[in-house]
Amino acid sequence: MGPFCILIRDDNHIMMKVAYFSARPYDIEAFKAQNPRHDIQFIPERFSDETARLANESDALCISPHDKVNDLTLKNLTPGKPSLIVVRSSGFDNVDFNAAQRRHIIVKWLPGFAPHAIAEHAVTLLLSLNRKTPQAFERVHQGNLSVDGLMGFNLCNKTVGIIGVGRIGSVFAQIMIGFGCKVIAFDPKKSNATTEDITFVPLK
User: Fold this and answer.
1) Do domains 17-108 and 115-200 have the same CATH topology?
2) pTM of the predicted structure, to 2 decimals
């Protein structure tokens, strides 16, 4: 997956001081390329009760899925700041919404982030398991060119089951269809019907 590029803006066009936790080199490079007008402080450490002090006086926090926001961590911040927390992922279970709400902090996340990147990564893992790529890689480094025990199988004409056909699941299904697979799926928001490419079935 590529870097998360989030430009935090406000209606009054006032520069915001942003504490960007769990910053990686590719994050910093991507943000600097966007030439943001906000004052972004890139912090390599994760956001926690020990590092929360680094965000004192910040108007906003930009955190990764690995950073934990709870009542304890928020208590270590300057009263009244931040007013905004942005989670750099499609999930937000690392944030205590009740604790944020008590402090009148708005929480935002990225529900539509990179479905193709995530689905393609899942396919990469599937192919690696099927074709035993890690084992083959290790053998070559050991000077062992034997192919015994490395046989995989073709995905074409196989049936693939998917639980949850949202943004990521839908992309994954289309990739599998491209491999020539039959796709069956369960999604509580879908009826047990057949679309052009996907057959929806009960979970049990």
Assistant:
1) yes
2) 0.70
Residue-level pLDDT, tens digit, the chain, 204 residues: 334 444 444 455 558 899 999 999 998 998 888 767 888 999 999 999 899 989 988 999 999 999 999 998 998 888 878 999 999 988 889 999 999 999 999 999 988 888 999 999 999 999 999 999 999 999 999 999 998 989 999 999 999 999 999 889 999 999 999 999 999 999 988 755 556 789 999 987
Q: Is domain 115-200 given the CATH code 3.20.10.10 in the classification?
A: no
User: Between the CA of residue 26 and those of 6, 30, 170, what are the distances in Å?
Assistant: 13, 6, 28
Contacts 24+ apart (CB under 8 A), 107-112: 108/84, 110/4, 110/6, 111/167, 112/167
Q: Provide the CATH number for the domain formed by 17-108 in this structure.
A: 3.40.50.720
Give the strand pairing for 60-63 and 84-87. parallel
The domain locations on the chain are: 17-108, 115-200
